[in-house]
Input
Amino acid sequence: MQSRRVPSSIGYLPILRKGDLLFNLVMLRRALTGARAWSQCAIDVFGLPWNRSRHLFGCNAHWVATRVFANGLSARDVLVFHTLFGIYRHAASNATISRYVAKQVGSSRRTAFNGDGLCHPAARYLRSCRQCIEGDYASRGFPTWRVIHQIATLDRCPEHGDALVNEWPPAGDMRNRTWPFFLPGESTCCHPLTPADAMPTSDGYAAYLKLWSRLVRDDLAVVQPARWFAFVQRLVSRFGDRGEAASVLEEAILHNWGLPALAIGRLLHLAGGPSFVLQELMLRTRPRNLARRLVVYAAAQSLGIDEEPAAQLPLTLPPRTDPAFKYEPHGWAALWSVVTDHGMPLVLASALRDGGTVRNIAHRTGTDPGRLGAFIARFPNELLFALRQLQPWSEDSWLSRELERRRRQASSSPESRPEECESLGDI
Ligand SMILES: [Zn+2]
Output
């Protein structure tokens, strides 16, 4: 498991607080070692040469845990406490989280956050809050970059409500994501968001920021896949249909924020364009759409709609207790698990159940047909067999075609074992 590059621990580094970005260690390392080059400090901390075009928010968790934290912190905790993964994991299933952590721990290569629909890219520049900086100086003598401030869909500090300050890169390549080698407040070329760019304060925005604070405190389970599914179903049934629910919520958003949903989506960089509320109600939502869930949830709360009291127990409800999934546990429930475990849009679970071609389902769920086809191609045979038993499937349905593809592949592959051909031919 341990990379060959991992040498002994690099020794004492000031302990980061929970929620401090891993990237701080490069600056702290340099402060401790004096004149060493930044790039060497980046290698010391991350184990790889400095590359400006790559993000620095979650690479080599095992390497960092071993070398920098000297096993005082597990690789999983490094990711949870010091990278954006710690934020977006709240909207992912436990299996997605485990898979992501295993990937990060088991490989010495950097893994993109987006593979499992887990994370939205960080804000373009590192950002900080002036009050947080002052608090840091007062409490420990140096300020740090916070993970929560780097979320692209936030432009104010959830704790203080202040507009975040962008730090310009020290040398000017504006196209690439570049990160300045400063702790917050140390650079002389910072750029506060101009009033025209910053989201105006409002009751709606205050409620949205409050939800982010709850999320960071691990106190907002409604965004977990199974709970979000149930909550959206409740919203839709409350108003009769998705279109009606969307227009009521958008009206509440306009009232609470003083801005139409269209403008909020643009200012907060929410994916999904002007209809992001409808996208959520259609369950075209992945963990990286966490911010959209918070906007919708805040609007629903303002209308007096919340989670069912029963669902607020501190228990993760297994999907099959959900009314929509009271089916044979190895069939539909397994399909739900596969969809959520890979961070795919939640609507896929029901769209796949309805049959149709890959192209048709991709269109209905807002996914790319190629990626959907590749996703289906990874379904285990047992799952396809189980689903096949549950209802009649047309010949051009995704299921029939995928089984046919596997049967042809198995019979044409010289390495395929006879029993495999037999079982697939039996379909
Ligand atoms: Zn702050």
